[in-house]
Amino acid sequence: MSVKLSAEVEQALYEVRRKIYPRAVHGWFAAWRWTLVWFTQVLFYGAAWLTWNGRQAVLFDLASRKFYIFGLVLWPQDFIFLTALLIISALSLFLFTTVAGRLWCGYACPQTVYTEIFLWIERKIEGDRGARMRLDSQQTDIEKLFKKALKHWAWIIFALWTGFTFVGYFTPIRTLAAEFVTWTLGPWETFWVFFYGFATYGNAGWMREQVCKYMCPYARFQSSMFDRDTMIITYDRERGDPRGSRAKRVDHRAAGLGDCVDCGICVQVCPTGIDIRNGLQYECIGCAACIDGCNQVMDKMGYPRGLIRYSTENALRGHWSGDEVWRRMLRPRTVIYAAILGATVIAVAVALVVRVPLKVDVIRDRGALGRIVEDGMVENVYRLQVMNTREQFLRYRISVSGIESAEVVSEAVAEVPGATTKTIPVRVRVAPGKGAPGSNRIEFEVQAINHEAIRVREKAVFLIPR
């Protein structure tokens, strides 16, 4: 009895995965999805090979602690811009989810994109849904082994190419390619190429919908961003039920049937294997494959399209027209999200435009306090770390203020190559009797010669012996 009870509990707690064989579908939304697949992948695989000013256009050089994005060079001190980018991404996700559900998941999420690519490879080698199901159910033979091996080799090659490209954004990709060909990759480069490739192969080739259903947190909290005016993929139950098969020539209304012919196409094309006719489910990634599949059936039957469509709960309940649905897009929630997002984007853009491409840190020489030199002058020694964030060679003039007669007696002009940091020793002297004994506040000004707008002022302390 206890053994039987244990088995029942185990069956209730753990669900055995049922393999899903998504059917190929064509239509307006499928075309949009593949447009974004092409756009994102051409951008990802192509941007790494672009050059700018004699270097890789997009490069996150962790070793040198510099991020190159075309003409923009970001340093660790510019971490605020990464924070702003994350805030903009989060706000965009909130806005688009509130307006039209899981648009990101259905069209641009890497998991969706790579699953589409891996499914395309699978269909080219093993065939569409029915052919793949027959191949998996048949006994292992030469044909089956050949097709399975070819598919996995294609997946692995594509996944390794993806891992290689990913690492190519952190190590110059041409250098990485030469190291890969000669097999002289460093340990970390080797690890990340194969790790990212393995993750791509595992997630897109094997786990697929499991990532969306069980691993992605977005699926769990998406409902908190929905309301009754959010555009989601819906099945029009009032129009479609009662469901039932019928011949095309039959008057289904007279027979007491709805428009749904219960063909199951909407389930067959779904990458997560759900039945959208059961209502909104957290497994739905919003890819709209069911809309394209259902529209094809409606066309064949001569029924109006839109049995499954993008709509809202209020629109279905109130039988709203398309214009009424669009008007409800401008509700307080979406307006607030859009306003905050727009203000954040503008603020970041302005900050980047007015950003001074010069950073200066002043460090007193702690080994030498204020000292008396010739003619009774008081001298302090400093080290100025001048960071030229531009990629052009610049010359800077160094001056000091804050105490009467304070002057720079070391070399007052510094030359700093583009996108580098240079430490410059600076000696400052003050005439006898000027300034109070002890600590005095002074200010360094570093000004780019021939570039009036490029200047930075930094405070420091000048010590006068008591």
| Helix content percent band | 40-55%
- The average pLDDT score comes to 90
- How would a crystallographer describe the biggest sheet? 5 strands, antiparallel
CATH H-tier superfamily of the domain at 358-464 = Immunoglobulins
CATH class of the domain at 358-464: Mainly Beta
* Low-confidence segments: 1-5
Q: How many helices in DSSP terms?
A: 17
Judging from the principal axes of the Cα atoms, what is the shape? elongated
**Ends: how far apart?**
93 Å
Proportion of strand residues: 15-25%
Could you tell me the CATH topology label of the domain at 358-464: Immunoglobulin-like
Which class do the helix and strand fractions yield?
alpha+beta
CATH architecture of the domain at 358-464: Sandwich
Q: How many beta-strand segments? A: 16
Report the C-alpha radius of gyration, rounded.
Answer: 32 Å
Q: Summarize this, please?
A:
This protein has 466 residues and is α+β, with helices and mostly antiparallel strands. It has 17 helices and 16 strands.
Q: Which tags fit this structure?
A:
466 residues, alpha+beta, Immunoglobulin-like, four-stranded antiparallel sheet, 17 helices, 19% strand, disordered N terminus
